[in-house]
């Protein structure tokens, strides 16, 4: 996704000045057209020594850091920043994936995908063999063969999003468990085309498919899980017909649930239109060639992008609000320590979607 020519129009804005009655007027506020590059530029300013630090709760957010990195790659921007993130994460592998005997499967999978994407060695990353660690978290039990599982005293929180990253990481690494992991992921797709978010709690029941679950609860539609699954499968689909059919079904479902104004809602707890879910869905649609729908999503996301470097959002050019409420709050109070996390998460998902503002750019991929 990276090391390609950056696409899109103007990335940064230029200040505007005017001459009035022969006198130099004060410069107007910096303004720009909506672009993915502007959001990518803003995301780089949210890093401290290569990681995203949450000032409200005072912790380094390694998962969000990887989201930022994947967004930068999708926008084909900021290779030096990606190198900085790579260096930083090498020193925090256990902080993110768990200190033995704790191992968080989804985090391991997501980190492995990032490591592979920047050309680093996932078998010796920060002193950890991520491929071996991930392989051990893929079940070999008959009922749940291929299913990702956490090893933790706090419970198993592995889900479909982590499973999708695991499929990509294991297939890229060429491990023997890649096929089983893929098979279990495809079981999480309901016949309507969407992927559910969570696995069945039981690890002994043979009814592990999305279709076997209650569509109003466990097997409820989830836009985010579906989009992530599409993106990870698309990256490694090769000539696998089952994978191609799964992608096509998921894309059809995404297009059928898109609002008239281009937006998407998320899962059961995030049903209202938002830039996080719309960003992911638009990203997936663009990656699979559904450029008209991807453009509609991009245009809706762009409505909530900061395009003027002026108070109370001075210094936030390119940031994307989560929704109308977040935008309204930002216009009144700026981005505060209490709201910055939401803006960062929304922007990381929105940036890749914004590369589809021009259908020609989408089709050129």
Word description of this protein:
With 365 residues, the protein is mainly α. It has one domain: Glycosyltransferase, CATH 1.50.10. The protein is 46% helix and 5% strand. It contains 15 helices and seven strands. It has a three-stranded antiparallel sheet with strand order 4-5-6. A two-stranded antiparallel sheet has the order 1-2. A two-stranded antiparallel sheet has the order 3-7. Strand 4 and strand 5 form a beta hairpin. The protein is globular, with a radius of gyration of 21 Å. 48% of the residues are buried. The N terminus is likely disordered.
Quick gist of this model?
The chain has 365 residues and is mainly alpha-helical. The chain contains 15 helices and 7 strands. The strands form 3 sheets. It has a 3-stranded antiparallel beta sheet.
Features:
7 strands; 5% strand; 15 helices; two-stranded antiparallel ribbon; single chain; 365 residues; Glycosyltransferase; mainly alpha
